[in-house]
Amino acid sequence: MDQRGPIMNDEKVLEAYRALSGLLRRKKLGEDLPELTPRGLGHSQEHMEDPHRVWEAVKAFAPDQGWICFQSDVAHFFDAGQRPPQGVILSAELCRADTPTSLHIRPHSLGGWGVHHLEKLLNGGEYWCETMEFLSVAHDVGKLRYEVFWQQDGEAGMVRRVARFCGLVPRKADREGAAL
Q: How many degrees, rounded to 5, is the angle at CA 66 between CA 62 and CA 70?
């Protein structure tokens, strides 16, 4: 024990989290907290300097859903047939519906792009994983869905390490068919 008090191990953190979720449910203060499950995470990355190689990586990944940021637009698609035309990608988050795998493209500090393959692993428990949804500003996208991977840190407690894009949720339409 140090000056901040006892450091909790993963099991004690999960026990406290579940107790808090139950308290919120009993007090009817809102929805339950998201479920945390132990998961592993596979991650590989490649540095690319050629924008054509970045598009080759996208095509090889064959995403079903995602968003791609270009210089003058952010394009999104709900199925592979809607994938936007080619242009120089600034950043992107893409996924396949049939696998727990995603492709994240980010500017690289050395120039070019970092192309990251992320995969949720059912075996391995070095992370606690929860699914979170974030509101979108796009007119036909309601939410962006992510799997967030948390890890115990002796100094900082539970720390978010990675958020893996895992899909788009369409915006619901009103009775006249317009997006809400």
A: 100
> Do residues 62 and 137 lie in contact, with contact meaning Cβ atoms separated by under 8 Å?
no
pLDDT at residue 43 tops 80? yes
Residue 14 lies in a domain: yes
117, 101 contact by CB (below 8 A): yes
Q: Are residues 12 and 94 in the same domain?
A: no
pTM of the model: 0.80
d(CA 118, CA 101) in angstroms, rounded, equals 6
Q: Dump pLDDT digits (tens) for 104-161.
A: 999 999 999 999 999 999 887 889 899 999 999 888 899 999 999 998 887 887 899 9
Instruction: Say yes or no to pLDDT of 42 above 60.
Output: yes
The structural domain count of the chain equals: 2
Domain that includes residue 14, residue range: 1-33
On whether residue 179 sits in a domain, the answer given is no
